Amino acid sequence: MYIIPITSDDILVQSFSLYDINLRLTLRYNSVLRGYQFDLFDINKNQYITRNKGLAVGSPSLIEFNLPFVLVLYDKSGKGINSISKDDFNNRMQLLIMIKEEYRASIW
Fold first, then answer.
1. I need a surface site. Which of 20, 77, 90, 97 has the fewest CB within 10 A?
2. Which residue range forms the structural domain that includes residue 86?
3. Using CA atoms, how far apart are residues 32 and 103, in angstroms rounded to an integer?
4. Distance, CA of 63 to CA of 53 (rounded, Å)
5. How many CB atoms within 10 Å of residue 10?
6. What is the layout of strands, in order, in the sheet containing 69-75?
7. What domain of life (predicted)?
């Protein structure tokens, strides 16, 4: 499992290598939904894996893609609820990257 640092910025861009894939993650705060949406770009293939995908607490993003991992928004407070303000992302939330088997084991 990897923890991606997130802040309460409107746009956050990070590049990293994971499972032999060079990735660029762009998080954008959506003030209407009070949550983040993301783009994930494969730098090696010079193409987007996904664009404008939403994040919800406890729900595995990218599970339907042919990737070895998922992104999971985690509520550190233990409430298990989505954000109610932009500040929640800096204080209450963590963005986790987990291999699919690791995620499946965590929900059992």
1. 20
2. 2-106
3. 29
4. 12
5. 12
6. 2-4, 93-99, 69-75, 60-61
7. Bacteria
